[in-house]
Every structure is written in structure tokens, then in C-alpha cells.
Amino acid sequence: MSGLSPARRVARVLVVEDSTVIRRLLAHIIAGDPRLELAGAVESAEEALLAIPRLLPDVISMDIRLPGMDGLEATRRIMALYPTPIVVIADGVEDAALRISMNALRSGALAVVQKPGGVLSRDYAAAASTIATQLAIMSQVPVIRRRQSVAAASARRAAAAPDLAPDFAPTWAEPARAGMAVLAVAASTGGPPALARLLGALPATFPLPVLLVQHMGATFIEGFAGWLDGLVPMPVTLARHDEPLRPGRVLVAPGDRHLGLAEGRDGQLRARLDDRPPLSGQRPSASLLFESLVPLGQRGIGILLTGMGEDGATGLVAMRRAGAFTITEDESSCVVYGMPGAAMRLGGSCASLPLEVIAPRLLRMLPASRA
Predict the structure, then answer these.
(1) Of 201, 275, 360, 361, which sits with the fewest C-beta atoms within 10 Å of its C-beta?
(2) pTM, entire model
(3) Which of 154, 188, 287, 352 is catalytic?
(4) Is the pLDDT of residue 368 over 50?
(5) Which of the residues 33, 58, 63, 311 is marked catalytic?
(6) Do the domains at 11-138 and 154-365 have one common CATH topology?
(7) For residue 156, what pLDDT is reported?
(8) Does the active-site annotation cover 369?
(9) DSSP label at residue 223
């Protein structure tokens, strides 16, 4: 993800946290970062809703477990009444907290990070840096009530467009001759709800394996995969190294490891995990995932969804040049148009489609006998 522009003003942060100790710690982190300014600190969602129109914060640090109204309901109300970028500060990775955190992302929060330990804890510096950077970056995301008529009109235009680029004739329409096709999907900021909608619109019998990269803190990836598994028809699991790919299964890149595609000695397509350095600051990298599908040629499909930065753009270009069909999410439905926009500028996209149109387009591309 890119940092703040030098000309950008300091971001005002509202901290919502019921623990006095953590509230003071977050205030200390914010005070120590020149990109941030503490607008206020409150201990309940109810106080936050009263404070927002008065303090006009640029970004909100949101606890999930609050007395009275919890952070999930607070996120929903803030996004409905006073749309403001929200970063969830989660206090744990157990199932209940993770479900609430992931649902907060689905309700409009932009990112989730883990609460820091005390200033003397071993990981304090890294945790404090992550929190400050996420607050600074997310303060720049324009969160507005999307005009549904604009998105709907864009979807209607995309639905009426031809199914495929004129020069695209997928060889995987004849699976016995061409071998198995693979779908690769990547997202960053705004990704969890977008992925839930995209994969939720595909049937359990979807005939392709799916490889997925979502930029998220390593601590939360396993919980994200479990959350997604409970929402979509296809089974979703963390990818394991050398695991065979199977149609109708979604494999998610584990935290802080690259995910790619490799062909085993038996000729079977398998998941590949590795610890190469981050690419453009990202591990897992969307571009490395897409590049691993280049040997498939027309049997590869790449989809790049909402996200800040440019990860995935060069990989999508490589896929398209190899004959794959590539899709970028249209700006009308993106939370952040950074990654899809970069791919469009580089010529890596065969089709730019609103989120709600992508799954139907995929299903129309599949042979009727396999859909």
C-alpha cells in the first residue's frame, strides 16, 4: 500500500475503546506519529456517535467488544449516518472476536489490526507502526454512501456488453483436450465483503479451482478463511504447500506467505507456498499469484478486485499477454480503485466490470455442461 502524500494534512483520529489502558496506549501511538492527530477518545459506541458530528474525525479506531452497543453495530450506524473510514482494532483472534471483526469489514470498516501489547512488550514497536500506518492510509479513503443508481446503471451496461473480448476463445471449453483451468482472485482494501459477494454468487459445483490472495495481517488470515467458508457455497481453506488443486475449492494464501501455482511431477496442478521477500511491500503478492498462472495460457482467469496500491497490476498484464482472460473490478463498485485502476492503465484488463456482474459473467463463460 502507498503512504500519505507529503502535501496531505494531518489525519484526525477518533479512538473508540473501553479499556482505559488501551485507550491511553492508542493515544500515545497517535501522538508519536507526525501523520496523525488525536481528535478525541471515547469509551463507548454511544459516545462515538455523539462525538463524530462535533469532532469530524478523518478516521476512527474502533474496538469491537464495547459495553452496550458493540463495534459491529457501531460500524453499521456510523457508515449509515456519518460515513468515515474505520480501522478495527481487535483484541484477539479467537472465533467470536474474529467473526465480529470480519463482519465489521463487511459492514464498511476498511481494515483490521491487532491491539498492541504494552510499551515494554517485544512486538510493541511493530504493532504500533502497523496501527499508525493503517490509520494514516485509511484516512485518505473516500467513504461515501454510494449512489445506487450509478452502480446499477453501470451494472446494466456491463451486463448488456458482449460476453468476451472478440479475440478470446478459451481452450478450456474443451476440458478433455486442454486440461484444468484455474481462477485466481486478489483483493486488498475493501476485499473481504467484495470476495464474499463474488464467491457467494458462484455455486458449490463451480468447475474451477480458485486461488485467492487477500492483503490482511497474518494474525487474521486463518479467521478470514473460516469466516468466508461460512458465507459462500464453495469450501474455503488455507492453502497448504504442494496441495493438489480441485474444482470447486477455494485456497487462501496463508498469512505472510506467497501463493502460486505449480505443476507436480505427476502432472497435477498444485498450490505452491514460498517465503520469497515481499513484492512491492506485499506478501502474499497478487502479482506473483497471477504470474504463476502464465504457463496455463488461455486456461487461466485472473480477477483483481478493490484495493489500495498497485499490487496485481503487472501480474494481470502478464496473464493477459499469455492469452488468459482477465477482469478488473469497475471503479463504480470499488472501495478503493487503486489496484484495478493500475491494471487498467497498464492494459492488463480484458474487461472492467462492477462487482455484481463478475460472477454472472464467469458463469456465462463456462460450458453449459459444466456450470
Answers:
(1) 275
(2) 0.87
(3) 188
(4) no
(5) 311
(6) yes
(7) 54
(8) no
(9) H
**DSSP letters of 146-202?**
--HHHHHHHHHHHHHS-SS-TT---GGGSHHHH---EEEEEE-TTHHHHHHHHHHTS
Residue 215 is a catalytic residue:
yes
| Cα-Cα end-to-end distance for the chain | 36
CATH among 3.40.50.2300, 3.30.70.100, 3.40.1110.10, 1.10.246.80 for 11-138: 3.40.50.2300
Between CA 364 and CA 163 the distance in angstroms is 7
Q: What is the pLDDT of residues 199-243, one digit of tens each?
A: 999 999 999 999 999 999 888 999 999 999 999 999 999 999 999
Q: H-type helices in the chain, by residue range?
A: 20-31, 45-55, 71-81, 95-106, 124-138, 148-160, 175-178, 191-200, 218-229, 286-292, 313-321, 338-345, 355-365
User: Which residue among the candidates 215, 258, 285, 349 is catalytic per the annotation?
Assistant: 215
The CATH superfamily assigned to 154-365 is: Methylesterase CheB, C-terminal domain (3.40.50.180)
H-run or E-run covering 277:
none
Give the CA distances from residue 359 to residues 158, 159, 183, 229, 366, in Å, rounded to whole numbers and listed in that order.
12, 11, 12, 17, 11
5 has a pLDDT exceeding 70? no
The Cα–Cα gap between 68 and 87 comes to: 20
Mean pLDDT of 83-94: 86
Active site residue 311: yes
